[in-house]
Design brief:
The complex is a heterotrimer of chains A (331), B (274) and C (547).
Chain A lengths: L1 H32 L4 H6 L9 H11 L5 H13 L13 H36 L4 H14 L3 H15 L20 H35 L2 H8 L4 H23 L1 H14 L5 H10 L3 H29 L1 H5 L5
Chain B lengths: L5 H25 L1 H5 L25 H36 L2 H16 L2 H11 L3 H12 L1 H17 L1 H8 L4 H38 L10 H11 L6 H28 L7
Helix pairs in contact in B: 1-3, 1-11, 3-4, 3-6, 3-7, 3-9, 3-11, 4-7, 5-6, 6-9, 7-9, 9-10, 9-11, 10-11
Chain C lengths: L1 H22 L1 H23 L3 E6 L31 E3 L5 E3 L2 E6 L5 E6 L13 H14 L8 E8 L2 E6 L6 H5 L24 E7 L3 E6 L12 E6 L2 H9 L5 E4 L11 E6 L4 E5 L6 E3 L2 E3 L7 H9 L3 H9 L3 E3 L20 H10 L3 E2 L5 E3 L2 E2 L1 E7 L3 H16 L3 E7 L1 H7 L6 E4 L5 H7 L18 H12 L3 H12 L14 E7 L1 E6 L2 E2 L22 E2 L1
Parallel strand pairs in C: 1-10, 20-21
Antiparallel strand pairs in C: 2-3, 4-5, 5-7, 6-7, 8-9, 9-10, 11-24, 12-24, 13-22, 13-23, 14-15, 16-23, 17-18, 18-19, 25-26
Helix pairs in contact in C: 6-8, 7-9, 12-13
Classes of the chains: A mainly alpha (331), B mainly alpha (274), C alpha+beta (547).
């Protein structure tokens, strides 16, 4: 039993490793294929000239024209494994440092949004599913349709317009108050600045999980055991608490783990609108400024996060699916 | 609500959504010139009777710009989603029919593409192709096929196992005959619905990438550009720059969903008699 | 069906909600901001009479820190380095004054500059500033800097504690302008991290730098000159819209802003405008198209000098300034308007009839579509602007509108800087220039024999006479002499770069630098600002005061 779990996890981990390696290769190939020469693009902004000689030599070693791409890739990968992700062209700092700061900002935002949208979506799905065909159900489904048709950045613009410009309840941007030392920023400040971005992400993240939970809920409501329970006179909250909850929760959590990639994608857009200095904003800046080392690292970090979510989903799935729990750890 | 039966209601949904999209495209293309014309004597006008969507800081008519931008987005979305759907069809069938190796390679590629958040992948592809329109179209086409390919693969595998196809094969019909006569009619509606439901995703992603600055250049009236320009003037209270184009974009995307859902229900054999 | 209707209702009510909200937008904003404003202001005025918070564009943040060798003060945008002191300074009229230097003179052949410096200046770490440090600074800049041109310097040598000699590779009469922007760094405290922890002898000490966000300066208590009145200066880096929002909520004292925001009324703030030489203009390639190394040089339409002349007088600059800049700008006729080396012959009057006459005379006849043509060549070109720059975009659009009146078809296109330089060799590009040194004339109009097709660097153009005047100007014995030669390079009575000359660039306007300034803050008189809406404003922040 225990061994099977280890095999199951091990297989997943190997697959993740393989996928990550492939992603790094594809990303590298895409970057090398780019007609935009990163050094050229940065010279244009009089920025490359401000790098020290050692930094420049190191860069040329990575991205130079002299070494064949495969050798470049290998040397990059070698450094990466040892924890050296290179120097960011844009931020003039080791990529590891840039990522560490940006990731902690982003994670705060994404985890909040992920939890809120999960809980909210689940509740809406349950309510909708238990009232199938009624007005509430239609309202929730209509809401989901509108929300999934709304681009995250536009919703962010709307919220910014309403809450920051018009009502002046929230700040216009940045993750910390202006003019305050880094050490003087309190946790509350951070929360205050993350409210609107997190709200945007939560609103847009609801639709998938709600619709999925609704389907499951309808299945459950039509099942024999619920029918029996109903015949015994159970209804409403009790019916849900004892017969629906467990059956609907795990699939919902599984799906939610698997949809981390969407939250990440949304955060790229939302951070841009709120000028929130997170990983997404860094990705956009790196893309626009052809900052190869940074963009590569961000891609890999985000892929790892997504795969982590998928792994969690697989594990959960394994736990609830008796076929996997009992035996063959197959996908 | 009970004037029409379900089938008729679906037809009406399809008709309305197609009519809306066609009208947007036609109006957009009639306004190509108007969308670019600048006139400083009428800049920063709030919505009024002659410019119902207002004008921007260059005195461009936002209604014309929005329509043109939407029709461009629809065009880009439809073209790239169609390419994507064809890729999905080919790879989905290949995965299901060409044996285990092909199957595992294709699922690996699917996992690979799903592993990187869409937006990030679009940024990467756009950078690889030197930004611009080409990058967006190819990017959207390359990133949207996996989910549909999975669906088609599952469908084909299920079909292969089904008795009537097994029997047909036992009767000595060629693989080509089976594919054409038995599989295709079953697969086509699925594919069609999948294709239509790719459009809204494609359009949302196109506008997002353009909004971030990786798509068309800034003098083009793409919907993403209109909205990213609007962002600069939000704080001065020029709400109309962001509001109307955004609403029309949302309505357009909803129309595609309505179209897809109606088609799905219409083509679902179980719903014929409802 | 119901579902759809509900969906629409949702969308509609969402929209309606926003509508209702936006209708009251304006007054609401004014009220709320007024309240928070007063509060903040009260707090500030009681306790912080000698502090000031200033915003700047994000591009103003020095990427490599506050090291002159990597462009601080002496890079793409010139300004006073604040943290370090300089040998000379530029005064109100942009002529040369003294700071660290007590005297300077140049040898007969122009190849040796001798500068004596004060002996009472200390770095903020307590070490005295000597001629050795000066020599080190310049040699270091020469070795490392690719941002600024130091190729005219052979070496700097300290001959004694207070005398430094600059040995030049070629005569360079405008050397004092270079000396006005290079901050002197301490040799003993200089390493590769200097940019992060700069030590200098200037008016301010850099206290804290949060990358991507802000820099905090504090007054140098040991400063050898007049003690700074502002004891603490905080510089915040943000975009214009964020700066406006920060001003609206009363969080900053000086917020940089753009003409498109100039109509905003913010309670407790006033709009403050500064004259600039921050010009915008576009290049017109002066030769027939030819290709070299994959780059096209020249443009068939603009190669005709009469076309360029017609364009120059066919643009109503004042109308453009009113349209695009809400009037916050001045007409530009050269890259160096109002500088001591500006030749007033550059100025032209708007004359559309004359422009049409010139075009007709040159054989550019109107076609059936209203666009002129000659020998099968259409009177048209693409005018590029850097993508995302709304002012340049608007200028390009207005240029297109105005030139259409003359029968010239202009298409605008946004491009990134990665391709703009190469493409500008064949298509006009909307540029921004303006510096406190005549070197800019040289960079734009002087030919470069060893690059491209051997013409001027940014746009194909060559005129031997112009080249010669500028070479002579650099070799001149004194600045006054050189000013005259720089003027002759622009127009000597027979040839040059003006309307009667070759007119290879069209200059449109100088963009005023605009700021929202909190009531009560007295900003000291500003020199004409160069290109770059950033550090220049605080060149003299030490003399600002609160009333």
């Amino acid at each position: 039993m225990k061994r099977r779990w280890i095999v199951f996890i091990g297989k997943n981990l190997i697959r993740i490793l393989l996928l990550t390696i492939c992603i790094s290769m594809v990303t590298f190939a895409l970057m090398k294929a780019s007609p935009i020469d990163p050094l050229q693009a940065n010279v244009g902004q009089a920025a490359l000239g401000t790098m020290s000689q050692e930094q420049r030599e190191k860069l040329e070693e990575y991205w130079g024209v002299n070494t064949p791409p495969i050798r470049q890739y290998l040397s990059w990968a070698g450094d990466f494994v040892r924890g050296d992700m290179g120097i960011s062209l844009l931020y003039r700092q080791p990529v590891t440092e840039v990522i560490a700061v940006k990731l902690s900002n982003s994670l705060f935002l994404m985890i909040t949004a992920w939890i809120i949208s999960g809980v909210l979506g689940f509740l809406l799905g349950v309510v909708s599913g238990m009232n199938q065909g009624k007005f509430v159900d239609k309202l929730i489904r209509g809401y989901c349709l509108v929300v999934s048709s709304t681009p995250a950045f536009w919703l962010a613009l709307l919220l910014l317009m309403i809450f920051s410009v018009w009502l002046q309840l929230f700040p216009i941007g940045l993750s910390v108050p202006i003019g305050v030392e880094a050490s003087g920023v309190t946790f509350l400040d951070r929360v205050y600045h993350a409210v609107l971005p997190a709200l945007t992400l939560s609103i847009t993240g609801v639709s998938n999980i709600a619709l999925h939970t609704r389907e499951k809920m309808i299945d459950v409501m039509q099942s024999d055991y619920v029918l029996f329970a109903r015949m015994r006179g159970e209804k409403g909250w009790r019916l849900f608490r004892y017969y629906g909850f467990r059956n609907v929760l795990l699939p919902a959590v599984t799906l939610h783990f698997a949809s981390i990639s969407e939250i990440f994608g949304g955060s790229v857009l939302v951070e841009q609108v709120f000028s929130y200095p997170g990983l997404g904003q860094a990705a956009v800046a790196a893309g626009l400024g052809s900052d190869l080392p940074l963009l590569m690292a961000i891609t890999i970090v985000s892929a790892l996060i997504v795969f982590g979510g998928n792994l969690a989903a697989n594990l959960l799935y394994g736990m609830i699916d008796p076929r996997i729990r009992r035996g063959g750890a197959v996908k | 609500m009970k004037f029409f039966n379900r089938r008729q209601r679906m037809m009406i949904g399809i008709f309305f959504s197609i009519a809306f999209l066609v009208i947007v495209c036609v109006l957009g293309n009639l306004n190509t010139e108007a969308a670019r014309v600048t006139d400083f004597s009428r800049k920063n006008l709030a919505p009024c009777s002659s410019y119902i969507f207002g004008t921007d800081w260059l005195g461009r008519d936002m209604l014309a710009r929005t329509l043109k931008g939407l029709s461009m987005s629809i065009l880009i979305g439809v073209v790239s989603a169609a390419v994507s759907a064809v890729v999905a069809l080919v790879l989905g069938i290949a995965a299901a029919t060409l044996g285990k190796t092909a199957d595992s390679i294709i699922s690996f590629v699917i996992d690979l593409i799903m592993g990187v958040p869409h937006i990030l992948l679009l940024i990467l592809i756009s950078v690889a192709l030197g930004k611009g329109l080409k990058g967006v179209v190819i990017g959207v086409a390359l990133t949207h096929w996996p989910s549909l390919a999975r669906l088609i693969r599952a469908e084909v595998i299920q079909l292969k196992e089904s008795p009537y196809i097994q029997i047909s094969a036992k009767l000595g019909k060629s693989r080509w005959y089976i594919a054409r006569k038995h599989m295709l009619p079953h697969l086509l509606p699925q594919f069609l619905v999948g294709l239509v439901l790719l459009f809204p995703h494609a359009i949302l992603h196109e506008s997002s990438v353009t909004f971030l600055g990786f798509g068309l250049s800034t003098e083009q009236p793409a919907i993403g550009i209109i909205l990213s320009e609007a962002m600069k003037y939000l704080v001065t209270g020029k709400w109309w720059l962001a509001l109307f184009p955004g609403i029309l974009l949302v309505v357009t995307v909803i129309m595609f969903y309505v179209l897809g859902e109606s088609l799905r229900k219409l083509l679902d054999p179980n719903s014929v008699h409802q | 069906m119901k579902k759809k209707i509900i969906a629409f209702l949702c969308a509609f009510s969402l929209a309606a909600g926003v509508f209702a909200g936006c209708g009251q937008n304006q007054e609401q904003t004014a009220q709320t901001s007024g309240v928070s404003d007063e509060k903040v202001q009260e707090g500030l005025q009681e306790s912080t009479k000698d502090e000031v918070i200033v915003t700047m564009p994000t591009t103003s943040e020095p990427e490599s820190g506050f090291d002159p060798a990597y462009g601080w003060g002496a890079g793409e945008h010139v300004h006073e380095p604040l943290i370090q002191s300089t040998l000379t300074v530029t005064n109100q009229d942009l002529e040369i004054g003294l700071d660290l230097a007590t005297d300077y003179h140049v040898s007969e052949d122009g190849l040796t500059w001798t500068v004596t410096i004060r002996d009472d200046v200390k770095f903020t770490d307590g070490e005295p500033l000597t001629a050795e440090d000066v020599a080190f600074t310049y040699n270091n800049c020469k070795e490392k800097s690719s941002v600024n041109d130091f190729t005219m310097l052979e070496e700097a040598v300290a001959t004694d504690n207070t005398t430094v000699e600059f040995r030049m590779t070629r005569p360079y009469s405008i050397w004092p302008y270079t000396m006005a922007v290079v901050g002197i760094v301490p040799e003993h405290a200089y390493d590769e991290n200097y940019g992060q922890n700069p030590i200098g002898s200037g008016r301010y000490i850099m206290k804290q730098w949060d990358r991507g966000q802000q820099v905090i300066f504090e007054a140098n208590p040991e400063y050898y000159g007049e003690a700074p009145k502002m004891k603490k200066v905080t510089v915040l880096f943000m975009e214009e819209d964020a700066a406006l929002a920060a001003a609206m909520s009363g969080q900053v004292d000086v917020a940089h802003t753009a003409a498109s925001y100039s109509d905003q009324q913010i309670e407790g703030y006033e709009l403050f405008r500064v004259d600039t030489v921050d010009n915008r203009g576009f290049n017109l390639p002066c030769v027939e198209p030819q290709e070299k190394d994959g780059i096209t040089y020249g443009n068939a339409f603009t190669a005709d000098v009469r076309v360029r002349r017609a364009i120059n007088i066919g643009i109503d600059r004042q109308e453009m300034i009113d349209n695009v800049l809400n009037g916050y700008g001045t007409a530009a006729y050269s890259v160096c308007d109002k500088m001591p080396w500006y030749n007033e012959d550059c100025e032209v009057a708007y004359d559309p009839e004359e422009a049409v006459r010139i075009l007709e005379e040159a054989g550019w006849k109107e076609g059936s579509d209203g666009i002129r043509e000659k020998d099968g060549v259409k009177a048209e070109f693409t005018l590029m602007f850097s993508t995302g720059d709304s002012v340049r975009q608007a200028l390009a659009e207005d240029t297109a509108n105005q030139l259409r009146e003359l029968g010239i078809c202009v298409t605008t296109e946004g491009v990134g800087w990665d391709v703009a330089y190469d493409r500008a060799q064949s298509d006009p590009l909307m540029w921004g220039w303006g510096a406190h040194t005549p070197m800019e004339l040289y960079n734009i109009y002087h030919t470069l024999s060893d690059s491209g097709i051997g013409m001027a660097g940014y746009s194909p153009y060559a005129n031997e006479a112009v080249d010669q005047y500028m070479d002579q100007a650099l070799a001149a014995g004194s600045l006054e002499e050189s000013y005259e030669l720089w003027k002759k390079a622009q127009w000597d009575g027979t040839t040059g770069i003006t309307q009667e000359g070759d007119i290879p660039w069209i200059w449109l306007c100088n963009v005023d630098h605009l700021y929202f300034v909190r009531d009560g803050l007295q900003i000291a008189d500003q020199k004409i600002h160069p290109h770059g809406h950033g550090w220049s404003i605080i060149n003299n922040v030490d003399q600002w005061n609160w009333e």
